[in-house]
Amino acid sequence: MKVHITTYGCSANQASSEIMIASVKDLGYEFVDEKNAEVVVINTCTVKYTTEQKILHKIEDLGAKGIDVVVTGCMPQVQLETILERNPDAHILGVNSIAKIGQIIKYIENSRNGGSRERVELLSSEPEGFLKTAHSRFNPNIHICQISQGCDYSCAYCIVTIARGKLRSFDADSIVEDIRMAVDEGCREIWLTSQDNGQYGTDRDVLLPELLRRIVAIPGDFKVRVGMMNPFSVTPILDELIDAFKSDKIYKIVHLPIQSASDSVLKKMNRYHSIEETNAIISRLKDAFPNLTLFTDIIVGFPGESDEDFNMTLEWVKTMKPDKVNISRYTPRPLTKALEYRNLDTRIVVERSHKLHKLCDAIKLDSKKKMIGWKGEVFISMDAKVKGVMARTASYKPVVLPEGSVSPGTSCDVEIYDTTAGYFLGRVLV
After folding, report:
1. How many other β-carbons are positioned within 10 Å of the β-carbon of residue 349?
2. DSSP 344
3. Which residues are in the Radical SAM core domain (predicted)?
């Protein structure tokens, strides 16, 4: 049978798809483009309304064409009825159940050969099959390691916590062994992912800083990118986290979502932190790592956000100058607390989004121009999407080098001579 897996959303979903693709191939099924598939597995994301609608259209369209559809990821956990309204024959694979992808594909194969045509739901209450298993990696040099599932907080707008449940941190020894296996297989960049890396281990006896110390002790030449951490989960571990980040193996990049710079909006969002506390974290990190790269997320137009609230966010961006801002226009999500709130006029949300995008683009361009002429060591991450290879500075800034000049997994000295909107251009120094 010919199978395709389509992936939406976060790096945790990407890691799950890599595991499922490897499992499908190991069972002898052919992995093909979607247009040639008999079975399409849709690994869903339900963070944004626009993404949800795109996915629902695909679920319905594929079913109408007679293609067997398997829906996994976050959506089945919270929007099962909506999925089945669009495609009553869709099979369901729970977000914790990726290890059972083979069972569901075999069932579909049997049904096509005269067996039962009833749809199947395979659900697990606890996550299984995420570590120490084969990956069919989208990039052979990068290993995505999911370190936990779920979240112990309940932000008013967030449906992911409802979909993935309470925090379940994975065993530290298993994580270390998973990464050791990946390094032995030739991976030279490790991405640590979860719904909030800062929460890791608060339900166990090993917290994130200790996990990082164990990971960087693995022999080999590789780099670690620590994924998103919420300010309220970083505060209790900040001293130890800064100490762990001193390792040369850890990129000096922090993804710290603020969502808003207004404390009144943060309170209504149920965010568990103030903007002052967030600023203190950033200040401590930049004192320790002057070239730190800062990513953040901001929701525009949350219910009740006033002009004054929004202007606070604009001023925060001007002051803190984050290197990248993921901007989302607020849309209500099912089952969340914010669904009860009165939404702002869509025109206001769109106007604020455009204004924030314009400011962020200007700050990013100014920051990039200041890097022209920089010289230093970079780590070669992977082949670039454009012609050449993608390198990363110690703070994870992207530098594209000429094709054939260096190989992924190595280091070299470069000079940045120009910049584009998305990356720097560099030349190798001999």
Report:
1. 20
2. P
3. 137-369
